[in-house]
């Protein structure tokens, strides 16, 4: 960004000098003396905006860079940071009251995006990225952009992305002569072969809690050719969906560690890090919990692979987990966009990604400097996962919590040994349909 601002200032200075020379041509010699150089005009001198962020590594990476932006623009950026749950609560309270602040804020597009947009709290951004060709909006992953799109309108800009991948123990596979699974069937076979509970070695672990598991079973769902819905119809009771839920639930029930029913990601990663599990499926963004030698006993034996394919191939989620949005009531929309454009530019995404924040720009992932903070094997997996990724990892509704509970109930029934899953799925589908219909009336 420094280069682009320097170039802008250089052009402005050239125009001023040329204008001075032209004006002086017809004047007396006394007035032909060159004028003193004027300071470059800063486009947003005196403007103030408020940025609200989560206590997140992206915030830690962007804050030290903001003074450079302020110096170039003349704008003052006031930053406020909150824990994740506090952030949602604060934003909801301020937006409900019609507050003009914050101007720009971090948010979770798939958790809050539809609610914020439907309530008119978010300003559509469609026109802004087109104003500056150098911003190169086409550089952003299509799936990541899909996550921040509501009713065909661009509601935010991606800053953090995630994909579901397969984690595995290199040493166990090598010892058993097992190839890294490329299909779900191969994964199930490998899990069965490596499952040895008598010696506290379990074949598979993932999230088992009803609501948390939904995001991770989603990739099983897509890879079997299913989804949570199609258009306005809930579709979690189709044969493809039931097969996906059955596979995920059975892997946990028959080959998971004790207590898996109550596990979310910290517990699942924790038991893998203790060296007691062969395979784990979850978000790539959490990989350091397994590769940090201070946290993991198997840090040097962790492998990464593309999510295994099902009937429809490998279709992991590829989502924007965190985005930047603009308050629809902001009195400084142009200044707010100037900050958003800078914070999500190629140069700044490169810097934040070097700090371990996986961004959505293809050019940064293709730049060797942009991947220095990630294991080489993981970079390859991420770039491959983006190609066929799906832009959501949960039902895209306003009442996300209710929807997740409805879906998660199906998998938990599998884990409890339910045999008539069609009946359970039909009831869950009816519940999800009611949630979707309720959204339409809002």
Structure write-up:
This protein folds into two domains: 41-161 and 319-387, 3-Layer(aba) Sandwich (D-Maltodextrin-Binding Protein, domain 2), CATH 3.40.190; 163-317 and 391-440, 3-Layer(aba) Sandwich (D-Maltodextrin-Binding Protein, domain 2). Mean pLDDT is 92; it is low at 1-34. Helix 10 packs across helix 17 (400-415) and helix 17 packs antiparallel against helix 18. The strands form three sheets. Strands 1, 2, 3, 6, 7, 10, 11 and 12 form an eight-stranded mixed β-sheet that branches. Strands 4-5 form a two-stranded antiparallel ribbon. The chain has 18 helices and twelve strands. It is an alpha/beta fold and 442 residues long.
In short:
This protein is of the alpha/beta class. It has helices at 2-24, 57-62, 66-73, 84-96, 109-118, 142-147, 170-176, 184-194, 213-223, 239-255, 265-273, 288-291, 333-343, 346-354, 362-366, 376-387, 400-415, 421-440; strands at 48-54, 76-82, 104-107, 149-150, 153-154, 157-169, 202-205, 229-230, 233-234, 277-283, 302-306, 318-326. A hairpin with a 2-residue loop joins strand 8 (229-230) and strand 9 (233-234).
What attributes characterize this protein structure?
14% strand, globular, eight-stranded mixed beta sheet, 2 domains, two-stranded antiparallel sheet, alpha/beta, D-Maltodextrin-Binding Protein, domain 2, disordered N terminus, 45% helix, 442 residues
Order of helices and strands: HEHHEHEHHEEEHHEHEEHHEHEEHHHHHH
Q: Give the overall average pLDDT.
A: 92
Overall tally of structural domains:
2
Amount of helix: 40-55%
Please tell me the CATH architecture of the largest domain by its name: 3-Layer(aba) Sandwich
Return the CATH class of the largest domain: Alpha Beta
Give the termini distance in whole angstroms: 41 Å
Organism: Paenibacillus validus
Keywords: Signal
Pfam family, one: SBP_bac_1
Protein name: Extracellular solute-binding protein
């Amino acid at each position: 960004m420094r280069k682009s601002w320097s170039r802008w200032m250089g052009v402005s200075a050239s125009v001023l000098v040329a204008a001075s020379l032209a004006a002086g041509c017809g004047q007396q010699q006394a007035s032909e003396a060159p004028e003193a150089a004027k300071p470059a005009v800063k486009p947003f001198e005196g403007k103030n905006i408020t940025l609200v962020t989560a206590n997140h590594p992206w915030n830690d990476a962007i804050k030290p860079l903001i003074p450079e932006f302020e110096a170039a623009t003349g704008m003052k950026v006031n930053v406020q940071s909150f824990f994740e749950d506090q952030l949602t609560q604060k934003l909801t309270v301020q937006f409900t009251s019609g507050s003009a602040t914050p101007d720009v804020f971090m948010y979770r597009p798939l958790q809050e995006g539809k609610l914020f947009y439907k309530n008119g709290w978010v300003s559509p951004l469609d026109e802004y990225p087109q104003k500056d060709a150098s911003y190169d909006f086409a550089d952003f992953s299509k799936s990541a952009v899909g996550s921040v799109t509501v009713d065909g309108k661009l509601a935010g800009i991606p800053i953090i992305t995630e994909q579901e991948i397969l984690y595995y123990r290199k040493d166990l596979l090598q010892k058993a002569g097992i190839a890294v699974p490329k299909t779900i069937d191969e994964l199930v076979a490998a899990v069965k072969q490596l499952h040895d509970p008598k010696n506290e070695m379990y074949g598979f672990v993932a999230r088992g809690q009803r609501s948390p598991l939904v995001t991770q079973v989603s990739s099983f769902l897509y890879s079997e050719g299913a989804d949570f819905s199609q258009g306005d119809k809930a579709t979690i009771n189709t044969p493809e969906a039931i097969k996906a839920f059955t596979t995920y639930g059975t892997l946990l029930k028959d080959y998971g560690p004790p207590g898996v029913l109550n596990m979310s990601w910290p517990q699942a990663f924790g038991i893998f890090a203790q060296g007691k599990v062969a395979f784990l499926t979850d978000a790539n963004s959490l990989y350091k919990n397994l590769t940090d030698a201070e946290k993991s006993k198997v840090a040097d034996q962790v492998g990464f692979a593309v999510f295994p394919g099902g009937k429809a191939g490998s279709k992991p989620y590829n989502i924007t987990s965190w985005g930047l949005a603009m308050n629809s009531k902001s009195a400084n929309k142009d200044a707010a966009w100037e900050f958003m454009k800078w914070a999500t530019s190629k140069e700044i995404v490169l810097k934040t990604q070097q700090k371990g924040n996986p961004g959505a720009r293809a050019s940064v992932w293709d730049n060797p400097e942009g991947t220095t903070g990630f294991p080489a094997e993981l970079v390859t997996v991420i770039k491959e996962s983006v190609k066929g990724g799906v832009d959501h990892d949960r039902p895209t509704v306003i009442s996300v919590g209710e929807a997740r509970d409805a879906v998660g109930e199906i998998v938990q029934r599998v884990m409890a040994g339910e045999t008539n899953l069609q009946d359970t799925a039909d009831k869950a589908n009816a519940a999800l349909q009611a949630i979707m219909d309720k959204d339409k009336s809002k």
